[in-house]
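Priority: medium. Attachment 1 of 2:
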């Protein structure tokens, strides 16, 4: 929880809630102890049981079916680009893979690959 309170969490909704109400308004309770071999199974059990609004992912240990919003994608792209890169470096990296320099230039995905991507 301390990571979320210090803006290091990856769950945006939970992060915003911590920022709004403060860490002291929340608590953590250990419901049960389990062996590591069945943790994912038990996580799924509790996800199904409580249906909590802060759980972005609905399947334990999987992001299957989850899609970031276009706004989130844009924010992540900005953060990734700004990570210690100067404008000049960003421009050089972009130019390095344009047109014929792109390893995928002139190639196309098979229909099977396109189906998997979609």
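Attachment 2 of 2:
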């Amino acid at each position: 929880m301390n990571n979320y309170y210090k803006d290091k969490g990856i769950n945006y909704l939970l992060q915003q809630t911590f920022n709004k109400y403060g860490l002291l308004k929340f608590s953590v309770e250990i419901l049960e102890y389990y062996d590591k071999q069945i943790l994912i199974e038990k996580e799924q059990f509790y996800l199904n049981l409580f249906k909590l609004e802060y759980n972005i992912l609905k399947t334990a240990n999987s992001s299957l079916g989850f899609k970031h919003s276009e706004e989130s994608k844009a924010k992540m792209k900005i953060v990734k680009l700004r990570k210690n890169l100067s404008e000049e470096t960003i421009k050089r990296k972009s130019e390095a893979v344009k047109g014929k320099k792109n390893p995928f230039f002139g190639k196309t995905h098979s229909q099977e690959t396109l189906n998997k991507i979609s």
